[in-house]
TrEMBL record:
This is ABC-type phosphate transport system, substrate-binding protein. Keywords: Signal. Residues 1-26 form the signal peptide. The keyword Signal applies.
Length: 330
């Protein structure tokens, strides 16, 4: 009934990163407590942005405040003594981060200044937003070492799995695989849907009944391998995997290993992997030429783009278009 999940599993080892370091702290740490530029959003890039927030300074003062996608229910992004009312529900994912940024800009409350995004979304926004790339990530599929899914697949096989092809996943109540997507609003979710040739509307409508985004009633958080068992599959950022394996960020891999796609193994500095993507910081278009946004984000000589070593340490490859401000919402 299932030709992929009963195939012999090829030999492959656990991936290990070549970078090392202590686990990055969540949310802004050190002084000042509140930063000029506060941002929320993507789980994928929260670690590298936390790392950058420790080294990006203007006149010796840290200016980036990056708040994790998960943690306490609420975050306070600005000093209540000077900018009251900036306690908000913690946004989880690229979509939620963009929404929170847009809401703040529309309210004119100064609570948020940028958002993190692991996918490009140029849908109309008011006020206008600019997606500024700063690094390159790649995404593979994650399974367990004793999984019924082979460690090497063609992209066409992955697409068949995520289309719930009965030759790959079974039929009706006999689906042999738990085919996972991350929580709604995740940039990795939208990127993986696009790569697999499926749409969010069809996923929500149940067109692909083998796909799940919850386990035991809880949303599936992206890049958390602890959701996996021997009959499940999920997308996983290679940068996240490498940073977790090197203990640069908290290790949530569980038993997860990454699969090979079209004969290309997921490796360090993943710009050569076939399924790759730019990752972004989203800023108000009106602020492209205004400091500190212009100083920190915009242009190839921006403070973020000068930190290639930090970007590499978190498993991402350098982006040849770092700081580009041409991708703007209508």
């Amino acid at each position: 009934m299932r030709k992929i999940v009963v195939a012999a599993i090829g030999a492959a080892g656990l991936l290990t990163g070549t970078v090392c370091g202590s686990v990055a702290s969540a949310d802004p740490s050190g002084t000042p407590t509140y930063r000029q530029l506060a941002g929320v959003g993507s789980d994928t890039t929260q670690g590298v942005m936390n790392g950058l927030s420790q080294v990006v300074t203007i006149n010796g003062v840290k200016v980036l405040g990056s708040y994790d996608a998960v943690g306490s229910a609420n975050v306070t992004t600005k000093d209540p003594a000077t900018t009251p009312g900036c306690t908000l529900a913690r946004p989880n994912g690229s979509g939620a981060g963009r929404t929170a940024l847009t809401n703040s800009l529309q309210a004119g409350n100064g609570c948020l200044d940028f958002s993190r995004s692991s996918s490009l979304n140029l849908a109309a926004a008011t006020p206008g937003l600019t997606y500024v790339p700063f690094a390159v990530d790649a995404v593979s599929y994650a399974i367990t070492p004793t999984s019924s899914v082979p460690r090497k697949l063609a992209l066409t096989d992955l697409k068949a799995i995520y289309h719930c092809d009965p030759n790959y996943v079974g039929t009706g109540p006999n689906f042999g695989l738990n085919v996972y997507l991350p929580q709604a609003g995740s940039g990795t979710r939208s990127f993986w849907e696009s790569t697999m040739g499926i749409t969010e509307a069809d996923v929500v409508a149940g067109v692909y009944p083998c796909i799940k985004d919850t386990k035991n009633g809880a949303p599936v958080e992206e890049h958390d391998g602890r959701v996996l068992d021997d009959n499940s599959i999920a997308p996983f950022s290679i940068a996240q995997y490498l940073a977790q394996s090197s203990q640069t960020i908290a290790d949530l891999r569980g038993r997860a290993i990454l699969g090979t796609i079209d004969g290309v193994s997921p490796t360090t500095l993943n710009s050569g992997f076939g399924v790759k993507r730019d990752v972004y910081n989203v800023i108000p278009t009106s602020k492209i030429g205004t400091a500190p946004w212009s100083t920190v984000f915009a242009g190839p000589n921006s403070l973020i783009c000068q930190q290639t070593n930090v970007i590499n340490t978190y498993g991402f490859a350098a982006n040849a278009h770092c700081g580009d401000t041409s991708q703007q919402t209508p």
